[in-house]
Design goal:
Elements: H1 3-17, H2 28-32, E1 42-44, H3 45-59, E2 66-68, H4 69-73, H5 76-83, H6 85-100, E3 109-111, H7 112-126, E4 133-135, H8 136-140, H9 145-148, E5 161-167, E6 170-175, E7 190-197, E8 205-207, E9 212-213, E10 216-217, E11 226-237, E12 240-254, E13 262-270, E14 277-286, H10 304-308, E15 312-321, E16 331-337, E17 341-347, E18 358-365, E19 368-373, E20 376-382, E21 396-401, E22 407-419
Parallel strand pairs: 8-11
Antiparallel strand pairs: 1-4, 2-3, 5-6, 7-22, 9-10, 11-12, 12-21, 12-22, 13-18, 13-22, 14-15, 14-21, 15-16, 16-17, 18-19, 19-20
Helix pairs in contact: 1-3, 3-7, 5-6
Length: about 425
C-alpha cells in the first residue's frame, strides 16, 4: 500500500486510535510524521497538503478528478494488507463514512475541491494551538468525535464571520480569525531584543516638517529615535509617552529598520476607550525598496491615504476602532499596502474596556501575522505572497492615532527579532 493512503487512514482514524499500536509503527503519530519532510518533529501545512493531495490522486483510480463510493470501498484491500483483515475492514468502513461527510452537495461523489476543503478542516481540528503545524501531541489528542460525530471534520459548518459597513450601502463579510481563549505562544520562539524604551527619560524625536527645506525632504532623521508626522504633539511625562492629536491624524515612526521576522509590544492607554481608532504600521519601506526616510520620499502629513496608497508599502493593523461618530466597529483588521487591501478581520478586545494600559503585541513570522490584545488573539493572517504582491520583509514600525482619538499614553515600546 502506498504511504499516502496509510497517511489518510491514520489521519481520519487518529481520534480513536491515537494510542493504538499498528504493525510496524509505534503510534498513529509516528505514521503521520513519516511525512515530516524537514524532520522538525511536526507536520506543517505544506507537508500535510502534499500528503493529502497525493492521497486524492491515488484514490482516483478512474482519473476523472473525483472519488466514487466504489473507489472509497477499494481502500479496504490495501489497508488490510498493512493492518490485517479485521482492522482493514473496520478502518475502510469508518473512512468511507467520514469521507462521505465531505460530500457537500450530497451526490455521493467526492470532488477534488470537496476533498481538499474537508481535509483542511481536519487539519484545523488537529491544530489545537493554531500554529499551522501538527505536533505529535496534537495528533494523538484529537477527540474521538472525529470518528464518531455526525459532522466529524466540520463538514457543512461555516466558520464564524464578522462584517463591517463599507460605504455605498455595501457590507464586507470575512471569517473571524480572533481567538479569545488564547494568546501568542512565544515559548517556541527565540527572541532577541532589538529596541526597548520605557519613556522614563527625555524623548529624542523630530517633527516631519523639520526634515524639509523649501518643500523638499532635505535631511534624514539621524541622531533621533522617532519622527512625528501630522498635526500633533509628543511629550514624556511620569514614565509615559503622550501622543496628542491636534485637530489631525498623527503617525509616530521609530527611525530604526527592523528585520522581517519580529515581535512588537507596547502598552497603550486611550484617554477614552470609547472614542478613537489606533493603528500599527510595520514592515514599511519605500515602494522602490528604499527607506521611508529617503530624500526622494514626499512629505507625510498624517493623512491616511498617504500611508496606504502613497509611496510606501507596509502592513497595518487597526487593533482598536471606534468611529468618529462614536460607534464601535467591533472588529480589528489587518491590511496590506500599497492599496489598502483588507485581508483579515477579527474582534476588537479593547473598545469599551477602560483606560488600560492595554498590552498590544504584533508577531510577524515569515508570511504569518498575528495580533494580540491583552493576551487574546485579535486577528491573524497568512500572506500568500501572490494575491497582493510579495510578502513584505524588513522595514519600519510606527504608531498611528486617527484624529478623533484625541490623546493616548504609552507605557513602553519593545521590538524583538523573532525566529522559530
Amino acid at each position: 500500500m502506498k504511504q499516502t493512503l496509510i497517511f489518510l487512514a491514520a489521519l481520519l482514524l487518529a481520534g480513536s486510535s491515537g494510542a493504538m499500536d499498528l504493525p510496524g509503527m509505534n503510534t498513529v503519530a509516528d505514521l503521520l510524521l513519516q511525512f515530516d519532510a524537514n524532520n522538525d518533529g511536526s507536520l506543517d501545512r505544506d507537508e500535510f497538503e502534499t500528503a493529502v493531495s497525493r492521497g486524492f490522486v491515488e484514490m482516483d483510480k478512474s482519473y476523472d478528478n473525483k472519488i466514487t463510493e466504489v473507489e472509497i470501498e477499494g481502500l479496504a484491500e490495501p489497508i488490510s494488507r498493512q493492518w490485517g483483515d479485521i482492522a482493514g475492514s473496520a478502518a475502510a468502513v469508518a473512512i468511507k463514512s467520514i469521507l462521505l461527510t465531505l460530500d457537500a452537495n450530497g451526490d455521493k461523489v467526492l470532488s477534488e475541491a470537496e476533498y481538499e476543503q474537508g481535509c483542511d478542516r481536519c487539519f484545523g481540528k488537529l491544530d489545537a494551538n493554531r500554529d499551522d503545524r501538527l505536533s505529535r501531541d496534537e495528533i494523538k489528542s484529537l477527540p474521538v468525535r472525529l470518528l464518531f460525530a455526525k459532522d466529524p471534520v466540520g463538514a457543512g459548518k461555516q466558520p464564524p464571520t464578522l462584517s463591517i459597513k463599507a460605504g455605498r450601502g455595501k457590507t464586507i463579510e470575512m471569517t473571524d480569525t480572533s481567538d479569545a481563549t488564547r494568546g501568542l505562544d512565544l515559548a517556541k520562539l527565540k527572541l532577541e531584543l532589538l529596541y526597548e524604551i520605557d519613556f522614563s527619560k527625555p524623548l529624542k524625536f523630530v517633527k516631519e516638517a523639520e526634515l524639509f527645506t523649501d518643500g523638499k525632504r532635505a535631511r534624514k532623521p539621524e541622531g533621533t529615535d522617532w519622527v512625528l508626522e501630522g498635526k500633533a504633539s509628543a511629550r514624556v511625562e511620569n514614565g509615559r509617552l503622550f501622543l496628542k492629536n491636534d485637530a489631525g491624524h498623527l503617525v509616530f515612526w521609530n527611525t530604526r529598520e527592523f528585520p522581517a521576522d519580529l515581535l512588537i509590544e507596547f502598552g497603550v492607554s486611550p484617554a477614552d476607550s470609547n472614542k478613537g481608532l489606533n493603528i500599527v504600521f510595520f514592515a514599511a519601506k519605500g515602494r522602490d525598496g528604499g527607506s521611508i526616510f529617503d530624500l526622494s520620499q514626499p512629505m507625510r502629513d498624517g493623512e491616511f491615504k498617504t500611508y496606504h496608497s502613497g509611496e510606501i508599502n507596509n502592513y497595518h493593523t487597526s487593533y482598536w476602532a471606534i468611529t468618529s461618530g462614536g460607534e464601535a466597529r467591533g472588529t480589528s483588521h489587518i491590511r496590506k499596502n500599497h492599496g489598502f487591501h483588507l485581508v483579515a478581520m477579527g474582534r476588537d478586545f479593547i473598545a469599551g474596556q477602560g483606560a488600560g494600559p492595554h498590552c498590544i503585541r504584533v508577531l510577524k513570522l515569515g508570511n504569518q501575522i498575528t495580533v494580540e490584545a491583552n493576551g487574546k488573539i485579535e486577528v491573524r493572517w497568512e500572506d500568500d505572497g501572490k494575491t497582493f504582491g510579495p510578502v513584505l520583509k524588513e522595514g519600519y514600525v510606527s504608531l498611528r492615532q486617527m484624529s478623533h482619538t484625541g490623546e493616548c499614553s504609552y507605557t513602553h515600546f519593545k521590538v524583538w527579532a523573532a525566529r522559530q
